[in-house]
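hey so i finally got around to running the thing on that chain from the lab meeting. sorry it took forever, my laptop kept dying and i had to restart like 3 times. anyway pasting the input first so we r on the same page abt which one it is
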Amino acid sequence: MDKLAIVILNWNGQEMLHQYLPTVLHYSRSEATVYVADNASTDDSLQLLAKEFPECKVITLERNWGFAEGYNKALRQIEAEYYLLLNSDIEVTHHWLTPLIEFMDVHPEVAACQPKLLSIYNKDMFEYAGASGGYLDRFGYPFCRGRLFDTVEEDNGQYDYATEILWATGAALMIRSKDYWEAGGLDARFFAHNEEIDLCWRLRIRGRRIYCLPESYVYHVGGGTLPKGNPMKTFLNFRNNLTMLYKCLPDSELRTVMRWRWFLDYLAAWETLILNRNWGDFRAIYRARREFKRWRHDFDADRQRIQASRQEKEIPEQRRFSLLWQYYVKGRKRYGELPV
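ok and heres what got predicted. didnt touch it at all, straight out
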């Protein structure tokens, strides 16, 4: 059994593998086994791996299962104490693994953690996808230390302390294999987007802990699979976020939050149409609402099981304020300006 398995899920990412896999192998081989799980790529990814990276273990999947099920199928073939799910567009740094491994080894109550994520294009800025650890507001909107909506902060060391978070980014997520499978793994029905938040929230409900450890830091390209503004990305984000709320919110909050989200989602759809003339995102939000209504009850058994596993009555990392109100009305654009 491996101590740590770094698993990179790849789909037509030949260029990213060529550019960033060397840093992963160089800075990680002494502490981890590196795997690439290929989601039936049609480019030359497999040929590249065989020719340039023979030391990397390869798992070949028969079709593109998406992010969630692709990882589930790959991880079922790996025996390790810890998994580290790593995007192919990550540049790692010297000594990046040691703080993560040492922290997990001495904190058995912690199920998962992440390093600090910085932008590869501007290495003094946080990166959108995970920054320095993620949270949710009362209506299910995700945000990070270092990123609120589209406002990304400069990294001046203001969040350089280990802290408990609600969700760790799927771009660089270290998790105990035991916790991964006991929580049910990533939800394959999501395909992509919000799946790591959903998994981490389920872990927190079970009483497990999630941390960001900024002593470890990596650089992320971001947006490689579906770029920002892609209607499919908008559709998956809205549909999956609603589904996650349906699964994970306690009974005392579910009805109220879902009523607010009905209003806020349609408001967002019309805002993107009227102000931005974006028909693609407008249609994507309406489609996401319809799809959620259609498949919501497919998750009834999941909801019952998740609520039955609840060890935490209230989770502090799901904040009680509205991020929309704080950001757009109060003008608070930085994490440090938000209510405690």
